[in-house]
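A.,

Following up on our hallway conversation. Structure tokens first:
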């Protein structure tokens, strides 16, 4: 079984797919929800996702991995543990105390970075992370999500190399 097949099996096993009425972080309504935290915070899921992100990077040279808190946090940690890449986390807003940083972790101007996230719907979370990373002087080489809901993220991220592990259509087809 490939790591992607193992991850799909784990998504099903952990009941990460839900049908019903949901409001997504984008504000959109949906009858299908993917709770990626059921696998990004699972030991086997974390290892699989870390491996799959690194596979998607292939020979692409990047200096760091990160994304918008909370969905990107466990993915970033998985990649950091399995590689030599440092990680960073983009806060939804800058801290109002201490150093008042928006980005936590390790990110330097001029670095090439990969932005990760759990589920991409409109691409808003990835774009927010990209904006913060670029404002810090980084260059975004790739954007990887565990799931692309196929609801506008690909179009919103057209300027970037957007490469999801799964597309919603693949997931729904696997549930039939």
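Then the amino acids I'd put at each of the 176 positions:
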């Amino acid at each position: 079984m490939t790591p992607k097949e193992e991850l799909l099996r784990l998504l099903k096993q952990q009941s990460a797919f839900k049908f019903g009425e949901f409001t997504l972080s984008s504000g959109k309504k949906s009858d299908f929800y993917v709770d990626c935290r059921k696998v990004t915070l699972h030991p086997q899921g974390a290892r699989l996702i870390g491996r799959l992100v690194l596979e998607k990077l292939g020979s692409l040279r990047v200096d760091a991995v990160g994304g918008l808190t909370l969905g990107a946090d466990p993915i970033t940690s998985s990649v950091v543990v399995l590689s030599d890449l440092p990680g960073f986390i983009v806060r939804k807003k800058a801290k109002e105390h201490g150093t008042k940083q928006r980005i936590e972790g390790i990110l330097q101007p001029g670095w090439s970075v990969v932005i990760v996230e759990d589920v991409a719907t409109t691409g808003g979370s990835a774009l927010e992370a990209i904006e913060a990373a670029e404002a810090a002087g980084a260059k975004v080489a790739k954007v990887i999500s565990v799931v692309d809901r196929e609801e506008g993220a690909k179009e919103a991220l057209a300027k970037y190399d957007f490469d999801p592990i799964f597309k919603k259509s693949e997931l729904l087809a696997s549930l039939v």
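The first strand starts at residue 17 and ends at 23. Curious whether your intuition agrees with the design.

B.
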